[in-house]
TrEMBL record:
Record organism: Mediterraneibacter hominis
Keyword Membrane: yes
Alphabetical list of InterPro entries matching this protein: Bacterial_PH-related, UCP037672
Domain Bacterial Pleckstrin homology: 154-247
Annotated keywords: Membrane, Transmembrane, Transmembrane helix
Pfam families reported in the protein's UniProt record: bPH_5, DUF3784
Regions that span the bilayer: 6-29, 50-69, 75-99, 128-149
UniProt name for this protein: DUF3784 domain-containing protein
Length: 259
């Protein structure tokens, strides 16, 4: 399926070149369905080039993602998402400001009264359109921003099992009797996330590295200490938000396993 991803990237690159050349306005959502009068309010070439600049940013992030492949850090997709959202906000603002054509009322064939009424109506609609778009995008940005810096991992240890609860990913339970060995380490390359959730604070779900292959990880990204549990099924790695708490967790799990 890798060729499909590269195909999409190349398609985005082609669209970027088309827009930067000042063409392809019919591909711009909103503009392509606008009335003739509404289209006259925009500088078509400038609009295309502004959209092209935004497309160039998005296309660059796509190519960077594909080029990094399995070497891409777990937090990198979130950075690319943030860049894309910021680009969308900037595009909305630029398309409704610098891409507008200054109209000369004296050149219109309609009466002055009709012109004023049309401009008033058009400005009102545009203002609400801009406000709505900016508010919607801002809400998305805030939502994503909250996900990137919040959340917790709770680990409950009993004689029978270790229950792992992550804020933004499915919970996981390890039976104490299934654990073959448990160890503590401060030297671990978490590798690549293959399925799960990653943010500036948390890394949860399925990961893959050169040491364990595919394994489960529930960890705080700000702590470099880990508890590694080897089971017959796969490796499970967890930690707490500090080194001290992680050491305490290790002792609890070790006691449950080697009781």
């Amino acid at each position: 399926m890798r060729w499909i991803e590269w195909g999409i990237a190349v398609l985005f690159l082609i669209l970027t070149v088309v827009f930067l050349s000042g063409k392809g306005a019919f591909l711009i959502a909103g503009y392509n369905t606008a009335s003739s009068e509404e289209k006259k309010r925009y500088d078509r070439k400038k609009l295309c080039r502004v959209v092209g600049a935004g497309m160039a940013v998005v296309t660059s992030t796509i190519f960077c993602t594909l080029a990094m492949g399995e070497n891409m850090p777990a937090w990198m997709p979130n950075v690319f998402l943030a860049i894309t959202l910021v680009t969308a906000v900037v595009l909305l603002i630029l398309c409704n400001t610098v891409c507008k054509v200054r109209e000369d009322a004296s050149e219109r064939k309609e009466s002055q009264e009709d012109i004023l009424q049309e401009e008033k109506s058009g400005k009102t609609q545009r203002k609400w359109g801009i406000r709505g778009s900016v508010i919607f995008t801002a809400v998305i940005c805030v939502f994503v921003g909250v996900l990137l810096v919040t959340g917790d991992i709770e680990i409950s240890v009993t004689r029978e099992q270790i229950d792992i609860t992550g804020s933004y990913w499915s919970d996981y339970t390890v039976e104490a009797g299934d654990i073959l060995s448990v160890s503590y380490t401060e030297d671990l390359d978490t590798g690549k996330r293959t399925g799960g959730f990653g943010s500036f604070k948390l890394a949860e779900g399925n990961f893959k590295n050169s040491e364990f292959g595919s394994y489960k990880l529930y960890a705080y990204t700000g702590c470099d200490s880990y508890v590694v549990m080897e089971t017959a099924d796969k490796m499970v790695v967890v930690n707490c938000d500090t080194k001290e708490k992680t050491k305490e967790l290790y002792e609890k799990i070790k006691t449950a396993v080697y009781r």
